[in-house]
Amino acid sequence: MSIEIRPAAPDEAASFRRVMGHAFGFDPNEKTLDRFHTLWEPERSRNAYDEEKMVATLGAFSLQLTVPGAVLPAGGTTMVAVLPTHRRQGLLRKMMLSHLEDVAEREEPIAALWASESSIYGRFGFGTASNAIDVKAPTAHAGFHRLAPAPAPVELITSDQARAVLPAIHDKLRPTWPGMYARNEAWWSGRWFLDPKSERDGATSLRYGLASHGDGYVIYRQKERWTAGNPNGEIVVSDLVAETPESWSGLWSFILNHDLAKEVTANLRSSQDPLFSFLAAPRRTTLRPGDGIWVRLQDPVKALAARHYSVEGELVIEAHDPLDGRVHRLLLEAGPEGASCSHTDREPEIVLDLEDLGAVYLGWSRLRTFARAGRLSGDHQALARADAMFSWDPAPWCPEIF
């Protein structure tokens, strides 16, 4: 067997989707192939070929990712698939090495991904950099707390109206929230406004609601259900963001007060979603936490210097890359206005795996938690200083899988 790793040609989209379908368990839909073409970056893919036949895929998106205090170019690692005939042959490692070389050549200091299997990517230096909360809220207990702000009115708008106003609202909000990334026109058209019946899972077409202040929106579907003649419907939220407490309150109140709906489902929510403070009976809501976006510091010096930090401080960090064994000993001098980072010969205060440095990079800092679990070493004072420096408000949140 002679395996070659290389980018796909533009006319290999069908082969790429075929391999993905075998690995993920779906039949590629020809009706959405045009959309795939508009989003796919074939030159960034790194695929395995066995005698010219594509047998494994790894794709990448060119992202603009928000980090604390800045927005950075990032390699969005995605669409990793290996045919069952070629598993356990080291193809993922070969593709990942080639992909990360491309990330470095493009001068993207970080790579990021969503993990279909959470046991895989730590060994490549990716750390769980945010969490995500799946929410099920019963509408029978939708009353708001007495201190919740008065809800801003919400207007239902058409798809064409949404195309005109939603991107600007998202662009205004995303630079303030680590983990969010820019959506270009193709992304909006192909992911948020294209609405084929095959992807509705028995629900309606997409609905769009706009907060009256013009600083928040919701995208959702409705599912009609009846049980013994009684309404048992569901509202499924795809995207909901806002800038002010009144608009957050208005959008959630609007969603929770649909007639004939018994439950609201909203996945990939932030752990700091105001909904949890709005509800008068929050324990009636079911929350299922999970991992969100994962981050690898491909260039630790540039990545650490690019973000801002909550408090002033200095740290000497030694990070070990599990992918190639490289050791990065770094002097970080940082604060709210920015940072500098350089290689150093000074004795490290904290020694950790590159995975765990990626895990705290976006501001979800838990180095002392990792230390209690024996995953890293460092004295308590240095770890406390590091946690204070790396932490960020708001906590990182990536509301969309890529």
Structure write-up:
This protein is an alpha+beta fold. It has three domains: 3-108, Gcn5-related N-acetyltransferase (GNAT) (Aminopeptidase, 3-Layer(aba) Sandwich); 132-291, Aminopeptidase (3-Layer(aba) Sandwich); 299-390, Nonspecific Lipid-transfer Protein, Chain A (2-Layer Sandwich), CATH 3.30.1050. It is built from eleven helices and 21 strands. α2 (33-39) packs antiparallel against α5.
**Whole-number tally of structural domains:** 3
- Taken from the alpha-carbon principal axes, the silhouette is globular
Major β-sheet strand ordering? 1-2-3-4-5-16-6
Q: What is the average of the pLDDT values?
A: 96
Which features would summarize this protein structure in a list?
402 residues; alpha+beta; Aminopeptidase; Nonspecific Lipid-transfer Protein, Chain A; seven-stranded mixed sheet; 11 helices; 21 strands; 32% strand
